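Reading a protein record of the kind used here takes little practice once its layout is understood. Each number in the token line that follows is a code from a learned vocabulary of backbone shapes. One such record is shown here in full, so that the layout can be seen directly:
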Amino acid sequence: RVLAIDQGTTGTTCLVVGMGAREGAGAVLGRGYAELPQHFPKPGWVEHDPDDFLRTSLESATRALDEAGLSWGDVRGVGIANQGETSMAWSTETGRCMGPAVSWEDRRTVKICSELSKQGVDELIRARTGVRLDPYFSAAKFRWLIENVPEVAAARAKGVLRLGGTDSYVIDRLTRGMVHATDAATGSRTALFNLRRVCWDADLLAAFGLDEGLMPHIRMTAGDFGDMEVPDVTAKTIPITADAVDAHAALFAQGCWDPSTAKVTYGTGAFIEVNTGSAPVEPDSNLPVFIAWELERGVDYTLEGGVFSVGSAVDWTVGAGLLPSAADSASLAEGVADTGGVMMVPSFTGLAAPHWESQARACFLGLGLDTDAGHIARALLEGIAFQCADIILAINQKLGGGISAVRADGGPTRNRFLMQRQADLLGMPVTVSSEPDMTALGAALLAALGAGHLTLDDISAMRKDAASFYPAMSSDERESRWSEWRRGVDVVRAWARR
């Protein structure tokens, strides 16, 4: 069996997955979950207590093993799906983190990015990486930690500082500081990684006042990340055999290994990707190009876009008292004929690709005295679907129109209205995985690959149960709705630039 740890934004999920003939390769034997607190100390700031990543990883793993009736001694490989851009700093002397884990959602580095842009760093990033200078990526977060947390600066001066993401820190702690590592895909999400040479870029590191000695070593996505040495875990020599970005792990599990199918993972945000194969698409200023994974056969690349507020937008609407619960949003939306003239652009933490308006905020348009909860729910869900469709269509245009279907996973896919609207606005079918934790499953499959329990052919042959949604909107209505949406986005962008 293998164990997968999915470090989500609001919680850590673990799966125990069988890889033998008895259970069936890929069979989920146990699940565990532990809530991961978020903190919002200032407007635009989103952070975690770094130690919560280790704590929730072990808690959810224990729960998954208990549900499966197994122990750590039954585990033959561990895979980690990480948060990508969430960034932190810790000491090699104490193993203790210094300062917060700055979330991928966080916008505190807008000023740093603006200052660096004036120095030409944006052009350098675009030339060497598949991304642009933006607070979303890790580089500016690392610089912020060094400049604003005295302990971090002191650790650097002493030569005991390590920087990394949620994966690097948890791997460091699970191996008692023996391994400071990540994979190339996670590295490609920092704005410090050379996309074509597949290594840390010395010029980019220097531009942010960093050096390679602070950064994790790069290892293959499915490979050796050391052995667990944790006091609470009695079994010895449990190998960590995979580390992947959460969105890329879901891409792997969905079997999206060519450019014909887009993958959307809906969660706190939504991340849309297309695997472009062994050569990167030429980057532009709109759609990030990342490394999807590095396996023994080589590197695969991906073209991606992200919607920062999906589950978080629904949660905010419920918390604000506009909807009774997230579970009621679909039935409320279906209970009205239309939005009643209401539009919502749920850009709570900025607009990412293809607009890249970091100062954008969410808005409702067209509210009236006759607006009720059904109109709010419908406008919210349509706004999420529009933002996701915006990115899928932009990727499709970039690739020359080869995308014919979408594969979806994540908690919000249980909202049938949202999935139907996604198909309607795209004009193409959307297939929803019946496995709710595809990110964790992808980490498990990569761990099995890294441990030598499965081959790529084995994984490709696995049957994946799913439900499909087909477009039911006329082309005239679709065109009209898109025209309205673009006007709404223009309002949000204009307000952000006021």
